[in-house]
Every structure is written in C-alpha cells, then in structure tokens.
Design brief:
Blueprint (H helix, E strand, L loop, with lengths): L6 E3 L4 H10 L4 E4 L5 H6 L7 E4 L13 E3 L4 H6 L1 H6 L1 H7 L5 H6 L2 H5 L12 H7 L27 H7 L3 E6 L2 E6 L19 E6 L8 E7 L10 E9 L5 E9 L6 E4 L8 H15 L10 H20 L8
Parallel strand pairs: 1-3, 2-3
Antiparallel strand pairs: 4-7, 5-6, 5-7, 8-9, 9-10, 10-11
C-alpha cells in the first residue's frame, strides 16, 4: 500500500525537535525507526500532516551499562558488548522482536511505544469500514467490549516486561522540561491513552540501575510464527539468588495479555527456595492476566500460557541455564 502524504521534518538537536512539536501541535507524529508508525500510515490509521524524524538528534543516541539512547537500533543494542556482558537477558529478549530486518530499523524507544494491537484496528481502511471501524480509528465504540469509554486493544511491545524486571526508567523531554518515569509506572489502562507520555514529549533514553547486572533475566514469547509476529503472550522474569541458593530478589512481568503490561515484585518470597515459590509466582501472574478477544489466539489459551511459560523461564533462571532467543 502507498503511504499517506505528510511533510517530513528532520531536526538535528533535541531543542529543534521540540520546536517543531510546538509549531505543529496537534498535527504531528514523532518517528524513530518507523516500523510501527509507517504501517499504520499505509492503512490510513490516524495520519498526521507532519512527521518529525528523530534520527539525527544526537542526544537520543549512545549505549553504556546504565543508559541506552532511545534511538539506538535494536540490533545494535543486542550486539553491543557491554549489553551482552552486563544485561544478557535484554540482549536475548531483543532477539524475540519481529525479524532481523525489523530489528535493524526498529529502535528500543520505539518498542516501548509500540501501538496497542487489535484485529479491529490493525487493518486496512476497507476492512475497518466493513466492521464499522473502532474507537481508535474512525468510530467512537470499542468493538472488543462494546462501550465508548475504554479501548481494549492489547499492549504488545516485547521489551517493556524485561526492562520492567530490570527496574528501568525512561527519560522524557518535552516543552514542559525533563522528567524520569519508572517503566513500571509508565503505562495506562487504555489502548488509546496508552502511557503517561505527553504528545510533545520524546523518550530520550532508558536508564538502567547499577544492580540490574546482578540479576538473572530472561524473556519468553508465545506467537504464531517464529518470526515477524507480535506476542500473543510474553513473560519476563528477574531473579537474584543468595549464596545458599535461596531467593534474594524475584520479579515478573507479562505483555499482550491486557491493555498494559503487568508487573509484580515478589520480594515477599525472599529467603525461600526457588522450588517452593516458582509455581506460586507463575500462578499469580496467570491470575493477573486479563486477555480480551482482540488477537488471533483464544483468550483462555493465552491466559494459561502465562503460567506455563513463566514456570519454565523461572526454572531455567534459578538453575543457571542460559535463556536465549536463538
């Protein structure tokens, strides 16, 4: 399909990008890698008159153990020696995202802002018109759960769960200044108002705390095909064990089983044996999952797979087995 027409702006500083945002308030989108936004534009989904490219903004680049620039390409992050050494779970999780071609273009900041998915929304204009459209596009009614207040499209980013269990934060810059938000507090339970980022705000970088490198982390993904597909369910976990093999820290998060990613800190299980708590953690995360009929796989199956995948992941992490996307 042919892209809808728009004016492209290519600022070379963060201040210049924000100046464009002020000038074109209400009629622009920021674009990073474009792997999500441009397919929506091809389907005539919420097209804006102006698109502001962030590619040339130097403040959005750079990688070290504690900070990853939001414009860094996924493939670059995954192959970076510091990330592979200090945050191997993140590098492996990136390997689950789409395909090599998409990872070469897509950015880590863009993945955190990926559009919520729903088979009533992510379709051509012709398809949507036959269904009466949806509240994220031309209508004002959600077709997943018919009502006019909340969009029930599923959050479907792969990297939010792994970064949540690493206790990462996002650095935001906007016309009102700069702020830092914990990723666990970033998302909102509406498929349209997806997160706390304001329209004029840009994710500058992802901040990772010093102690994240002491965690064993991993991500598992349920999808129809081995590549390309968004998650039908995804789960991440972070574990730190004490010298006697008991749990020191344990966190878990899921994606694609609700409008927002779900996160839980299981600090109450500290000092207990992993084999005593793995089933409890997996069961609680399954209970929290609230998938809706908005993707290809059945709702009940997606919910049950939270327990199955997370239990396997926790076994691997606590037993020291490598968790890899390969």
């Amino acid at each position: 399909m042919i892209l809808a027409p728009f004016s492209l702006h290519r600022p070379e500083t963060l201040d210049e990008a924000l100046a464009f945002a002020r000038t074109h308030a209400g009629s622009f989108d920021f674009i990073a890698g474009g792997t999500d936004l441009l397919q929506n534009y091809k389907n005539r989904l919420n097209v804006r008159e102006h698109v502001i490219s962030l590619e040339r903004v130097p403040e959005l680049h750079g990688i070290d153990a504690h900070r990853i620039g939001a414009m860094e390409r996924l493939s670059v992050v995954a192959s970076h020696p510091v990330i592979r050494e200090r945050h191997a779970g993140l590098a492996d999780a990136i390997g689950h995202v789409a395909s090599p071609l998409v990872r070469n273009s897509g950015t880590i900041g863009g993945n955190l802002l990926v559009e919520t998915r729903c088979y009533y929304f992510n379709q051509t204009h012709f398809w949507r018109d036959t269904k009466g459209s949806c509240m994220k596009a031309e209508s004002d009614t959600c077709l997943v759960i018919p009502q006019k207040e909340i969009c029930y499209a599923a959050y479907s980013g792969d990297l939010a769960p792994i970064l949540m269990v690493m206790d990462a934060s996002v650095e935001l810059a906007g016309l009102g200044g700069r702020r830092t938000v914990k990723l666990t507090e970033f998302y909102r339970g509406d498929g349209i108002a997806k997160n706390v980022r304001q329209p004029d705000e840009i994710i500058v970088a992802i901040s990772i705390p010093d102690d994240a490198s002491t965690l064993r982390t991993g991500y598992r993904k349920l999808r129809i095909r081995d590549t390309l597909d968004y998650p039908e369910m995804g789960c991440a976990a972070a574990v730190e064990l004490a010298g006697d093999g008991t749990i020191r820290r344990l966190r878990a998060a899921t994606t694609a089983v609700d409008v927002i990613p779900h996160y839980a800190d299981f600090g109450a299980f500290a000092s207990r044996s992993p084999r005593d708590v793995i089933d409890l953690v997996a069961g609680e995360m399954e209970e929290r999952a609230e998938p809706k009929k908005n993707t290809s796989m059945p709702v009940g199956y997606r919910k049950k797979m939270v327990r199955v995948y997370l239990r396997r992941l926790l076994h691997d992490l606590t037993e020291g087995r490598t968790v890899s996307a390969a």
